[in-house]
Amino acid sequence: MLVLWFSIRPGLGQPGQSVDLQTLLEVKKSLVTNREDENILRNWNSDDPNFCNWTGVTCRGRVVIGLNLSDFDLSGSIPPSIGRFSNLIHLDLSSNSLVGPIPTALTNLSSSLETLHLFSNKLQGKIPSQLGSLVNLRSLKLGDNDLSGSIPETFGNLVSLQTLALAKCRLTGPIPRQLGRLVNVQALILQQNQFEGPIPPELGNCTSLVFFTAAFNGLNGSLPTDLSRLLNLQILNLGNNSFSGEIPSQLGDLRNLQYLNLVSNRLQGSIPKRLTGLENLQTLDLSNNHLTGEIHEEFWKMSQLEDLVLANNRLSGSLPKSLCSNNTSLKQLVFSGTQLSGEIPAEIRKCQSLQALDLSNNTLTGRIPDSLFTLAELRVLYLHNNTLKGTLSPLVSNLTNLQELALYHNDLDGKLPKQIGFPAN
What we know:
It is found in: Membrane. By secondary structure, the protein is mainly β. It contains one helix and 29 strands.
C-alpha cells in the first residue's frame, strides 16, 4: 500500500487563507515604500504565515476581517488589492502620510465593510462616487486630506451610516440634498471646506443627528426652519459662513441642544426669545453678525448656560439687575461691541462662576462696582473703550486668578492701586 505524506505549512490550509496572505504582503509593499521604514510592519513577513497574529490584523477564524494601521507612519499609497479582502469589516489607515487617490476597488467590499477611516493623511483626488455602494458602512471618516471635488450624491445611499466626517478636505460645491436620506446618521462633520450654497432642507430628515457642524465654509442663504426637526441635536455649529436673514425662532424647539454657534455670519433681526427656553444649552455664540434689538432678560435665568457670546452686533439696552439671577454656571460673558449703555450693576456679584468678562467697546458709564471684585474665578476682565469713571478700587487685589486686565480709553482717574503687582523682568 502506498502511503503519501504531505507537509502543510501552518495557516495555509485553505485557498482563501493563502489569498489573504499574499494580499497582505501586497498591501505592505504599497503602504511601506521607504527603505528607512523597513521596521514598520516588520512581522508582516512570509516567514510567518500566521498572518492573524500580524500587527494590526484581526481575523475571524482564519479570515481577515479588520486592518487597523492607524498612526503607523505609513507613507505609501492605498493599493487596489485591498479590495480583495471580501470579508473585511473594519479598515483604519488614519493618521499616516499616505498619498495618492482613494481606490475605487474599495467598492468590492460592499457586502461587509462597516468602518472606513482614512482621515489625517495626504490623499488626493476626488472622492469616488462608487463609495456610495458601501451600503453597510456605519462610520466613514475621510477628513484632513488634500481631496478635491464635491461630496458624491451617491452618499445618500449609505443609509446605515452613523458617522460621516469630511472636515478639512478642500471639498467644494453644495451639500447634496441626498444626504437627507441618512436617517441613522448621528454625526455629520463638514467643517473647514469650501462648500457653497444653502443648507438643503432635506437635512431635516436626519432625525438621529446629535452632532452637526458645517463651520468655516462659504455656505449662504437663510437657515432652514427644517433644522428644528432635529430633536436629538446636541451640537450645532454653522459659524464662519455667509448665512443671512433671521435666526429661525423654531430653533428653540431643539430641547436637547447644548451648543449653538452661529458666529461670523450675516444674520439680521433680533435674537429669538424662544432660544432662552433651551434649558440644556451651555454655549451660545451669536457674535459678529448684524443682530439688533435688546438682550432678553430671560438669558439670565438659563441655569445651564456657561458661555454667552454676543459680541459685535447692533444690540442695545443695558445689563439688568437680574444678571445671573438663576444662573450659577456662567463662565464666559462676552458683550464687546454690542452698544451696551448704562452702568455695570452691583448684582454682577451673583455671577460667581465667571472666568471671562468682556464688556469692552460699549458706552458704559458710572463707576466700576466693588462687587465685581468678589468674582474670585475671574481670569480675564476687559472694560476698555467705555466711559467709566472714578478710581479703581484696591479690592481688585481680590482677583487673585486674574491674568488679563484692560481698562484703557475710559474716564478713570487716580493712581493704579499698589495692590496690583507686576511680575519682575
